[in-house]
Design brief:
about 250 residues; alpha+beta; Ubiquitin-like (UB roll); five-stranded mixed β-sheet; 3 helices; about 15% helix; about 35% strand; proteasome binding
Length: about 250
């Protein structure tokens, strides 16, 4: 059955079994939102749901039940280890959040989605040094919190092809309630989108037709963005859960 997890900034819908424990549900929330289990309190109508019990012990939890998620110890809570940087053009600038392990290539894709600037035209500079290797991490260039990255645009005569796609080998990890074999090895190009990964799994009938949330390093993945954009590397694990997620106010 589907239940709705409501927090201040998120509304998360997940598929659960009636015999799943509250602790297992918290583990799903940790994978989806990055909230540590120890920082979660789940309740229905101010009635706290205890880790050692399962949903069968709570008759008030049925299909479509809204469960409140309270997050404690906020000062020490860093769900995605993101930093804020500034991307500066000649006539405008943008503030953007990036992961510390993000690559130069994935940053270019983010700038393209946000600003519309063609990826092939971008040259990124930090402290006067060109970030000319799309596969290197931002941290390799010393990029940190509140860093400013300058974007120069190549003229049409200087355009070069985008870096060639690489083949990635990764694992899609599902919950045991979804499939008997919960670890699925997958090979795809790093330019493939999350939507294409989902379609591949559905086409091979490795997962049943349904709504799914993909998670990489405790970050919810965007369906229209590539594996490279999300920083997926060889040997990484993508977690998949039934459900949908939407951002609140």
């Amino acid at each position: 059955m589907k239940i709705h997890i409501l927090a201040k900034a998120y509304a998360l819908t997940i598929e659960v079994g009636t015999q799943e424990t509250i602790l297992e549900i918290k583990r799903k929330i940790e994978h989806c939102l990055g909230v540590p289990i120890s920082s979660q309190t789940l309740s229905v109508c101010d009635w706290e749901l205890l880790d050692g019990l399962d949903l069968d012990d709570y008759p008030i939890v049925t299909e479509g039940t809204k469960i409140d998620l309270t997050i404690t110890r906020i000062p020490s809570f860093e769900p995605r280890k993101q930093i804020q940087i500034t991307v500066k053009f000649s006539s405008r600038k943008h503030s953007i959040e990036v992961d510390r392990t993000e690559t130069v290539g994935s940053l270019k894709e983010k700038i393209h989605i946000m600003d519309g600037t063609p990826i092939k035209q971008m040259m990124l500079f930090f402290t006067g040094v060109e970030m000319d290797d799309d596969f290197r991490k931002l941290s390799d260039f010393g990029v940190g919190e509140f860093s400013e990255i300058v974007v120069f645009l190549k003229t049409m005569s200087r355009l070069v092809a985008e870096p060639p796609s690489r083949k990635l080998s990764f694992v899609v990890q599902t919950s045991s309630a979804l499939l008997d074999s919960s670890s699925l090895p997958v090979e795809m190009k790093d330019s493939s989108t999350v939507s294409e990964v989902r379609e591949l799994l559905l086409g091979r009938k490795l997962i049943p037709l349904d709504d799914y949330i993909f998670i990489h390093k405790q970050r919810i993945m965007r369906e229209n963005c590539s594996l490279r954009w999300h920083g997926v590397e060889n040997g990484d694990c993508l977690y998949i859960f039934k459900g949908t997620v939407s951002r609140g106010c």
